[in-house]
Amino acid sequence: MGDGESINATKDPWLHLKADFCVENSHIYSGRDELVSAYIKQDTREWNIPLITEKFVSEDVQAILFVPIPQRRTRDRLVWSHSTTGVYSAKEGYRFWQNQVWFMTCRKFRTLLYGCWENYRQLGTKNSGRYVQLSGIWFWRNKKVWEDKSTTPTIAMDSSLKIVADWRDVRAKNKTNSSVPKSKQGSQRCRWVASGEGILKLNMDASLFSGAPDFTVGMVSRDHKNTFLVGRTSCFRAPVSVFEEEAIGVREALSWVKDMQFNACKVELETDSLLVVQGIKNSVINLLEVGEVLEQCRRYLRELEGISIHFIRNQANRVAHKFSRITCLVNCHHVFTSPPVNLVETLVLDSHY
Questions:
Q1: From 117's CA, which of 51, 95, 133, 324 has a CA 20 to 30 Å away?
Q2: Per-domain residue ranges for the chain?
Q3: DSSP state for residue 84 in the 8-state scheme
Q4: Using CA atoms, how far apart are residues 196 and 88, in angstroms rounded to an integer?
């Protein structure tokens, strides 16, 4: 849903919580042709709860209020709900129907595969190689189904045996590496690293409190000496997915960079959401609600010079995470020119790594 100007509230499929995406017993709403936009407060971009409660049955009221309203006006879009991008293709349609048939008619074969997988996980011995071989055979089966690439049984079996050999080599190396102290394994990738001189580092994270109808975005900027420069928290209505929540956070961080004129120097924006970073950089068409947010992020990156976006692990994003736990009112924000008390210890720990 975008602005709701082209969605019929009682006839069109638009409710996420419903199996068929439509209102319950649509016949009770016969003769009504209201658009979804009629139930949105245009000035505050919120649902008109009293009007919705008056016009719909309780089951539909809950489903309607669950649908997020974009804070910026966007057009409505027709999407394929069984795809991660909302784009329909023959491949996606085939996959959907194959999954339906697989679920309904192949219970015995699924039980066999699940049993093999459990044995593979539990045995951890040379017998597990049999199940790795099975996965290799399944790989070539998928090649035929999805890419129409065929091979001979001999090549398929040789490939499966090679997978087994590689798998055993990896297990042997893992056993060797397990004796190395964890502090020496990948420590560089699990901590915050200061930027180079003349470069600002802006860390961002989003947090959703359990049971709350909104989420908070925290942003912290530091220089190459790990000096706290400025921070900001913003609160928004909770979206449908964590993916969209993190994408909104990145968009707000980029907007803040533009408003504060951080782009006068180089800025490195860091987030612990790999999906968002990949979604922005890949430029894949996404018709779901999050697609519009990703496109807004790309527009900001094209407008702003000297800014880059990177993925980091959540262990290296602790300051931004704690900042995002500072609550504020919905659709409002707070700016901090000095770090809050609960953030000082984490800042000190980052500077001593």
A1: 95
A2: 1-76, 90-182, 193-351
A3: S
A4: 44
Structure pTM? 0.60
Phi, psi dihedrals of residue 22, rounded to the nearest 5°: -115, 165
Contacts of 239-245 with CB under 8 Å at 24 or more apart are 239/68, 239/215, 239/289, 239/290, 240/16, 240/67, 240/68, 240/289, 241/290, 242/208, 243/273, 243/275, 243/276, 243/279, 243/290, 244/68, 244/289, 244/290, 244/293, 245/206, 245/208, 245/215
290's enclosing H/E stretch is helix 289-303
SS3 content of the chain, % helix, strand, coil (to 5): 50, 15, 35
Q: Which residues pair with 353 in a beta bridge?
A: none
Burial of 72 (0-12, 13-18, 19+ CB in 10 A): exposed
- Integer Cα distance of 294 and 246 in angstroms: 10
Q: Which residue has the higher pLDDT, 128 or 203?
A: 203
Q: By C-alpha distance, which of 262, 220, 239 is closest to 71?
A: 239
pLDDT tens readout for residues 68-78: 777 667 788 88
How far apart are alpha carbons 46 and 39 in whole angstroms? 9
CATH architecture of the region 193-351: 2-Layer Sandwich (3.30)
Question: Is 109's pLDDT higher than 60?
Answer: no
DSSP tag of 210: T
Tokens linked to 327 = 């609550």
